[in-house]
Amino acid sequence: MPDGTIIQDYYVNEYADWVNAIVLTKDDDIILVEQYRHPGNDYYLEIPAGKIEEGETYAEGIVREVREETGYISAEQPILLGEFMVNPATQTNKVITFLIKDAYHVCDQELDETEIIDVKRYPFESVEKMIQEKEMTQLFSVSAYYLAKSYLEMKKDVQQEV
């Protein structure tokens, strides 16, 4: 503790930071990935995510992860939506969330041998209902959706004022 008190049986998990992104096509569809998650004992619908590799910036890392997991790229730069501590009570890492707009499919997936990922495409406007109906329950995907929705609404409001 800041005052020097030591808490017995207190553990800190040291994890690497990771990146994730809301990926939108030119038609305003969202690109999601579905994969089995052993701790949850189920398949989860999520946004593309992963760890950055040595020497990469967060933006470079998410562009690579999106391409590898989904085969999608964009000519536009990723938009930073925020950096968040995952769980500062027990973990050292943060998640860096981006928005990637105008994405399009260019290649097959380039998955690690332990990855089995199905790429899904849905209208962006349908995601909130998917969250309400518990089709999407992964917290970082849900929070990223609301960050992107807020960002896009703000941009639309600004454009209407001009």
TrEMBL record:
Pfam family, one: NUDIX
Protein name from the UniProt record: NUDIX hydrolase
Keyword terms, alphabetized: Hydrolase
Cofactor: Mg(2+)
GO terms for MF: hydrolase activity
PANTHER family: NUDIX HYDROLASE DOMAIN-CONTAINING PROTEIN, UDP/ADP-SUGAR PYROPHOSPHATASE
Domain Nudix hydrolase: 14-144
SUPFAM superfamilies: Nudix
